[in-house]
UniProtKB/TrEMBL annotation:
It comes from Sporosarcina globispora. Pfam families: KH_KhpA-B. PANTHER family: RNA-BINDING PROTEIN KHPA (PTHR34654:SF1), UPF0109 PROTEIN SCO5592 (PTHR34654). This is RNA-binding protein KhpA. Keywords: Cell shape, Cell wall biogenesis/degradation, Chaperone, Cytoplasm, RNA-binding. The gene is khpA. Belongs to the KhpA RNA-binding protein family. Coiled coil: none annotated.
């Protein structure tokens, strides 16, 4: 899943080397924390959050086979 997020986000940004995905696993949930360069934040979020929503939709669909709830957080 981490590789999927990186594959989606890296072509969108100007600084792909700054893209990092951290994973936090708990009992019933997995949280992926996406961190990008400050200058690329707007590109990842998109107008009215459309790009972020699309990324989340793909990630949630890919993780629907797992038994845990998946969350994607975009952090600075």
């Amino acid at each position: 899943m981490k590789e999927l997020i990186e594959t989606i986000v890296k072509p969108l940004v100007d600084f792909p080397e700054d893209v990092q995905v951290n994973v936090q696993e708990e009992d019933q949930r997995v949280t992926y924390q996406l961190s990008v360069n400050k200058n690329d934040m707007g590109k990842v979020i998109g107008k009215q959050g459309r790009v972020a929503k699309a990324i989340r939709t793909v990630v949630y669909a890919a993780g629907s086979s797992e038994q845990k709830k998946i969350f994607l957080e975009i952090i600075e």
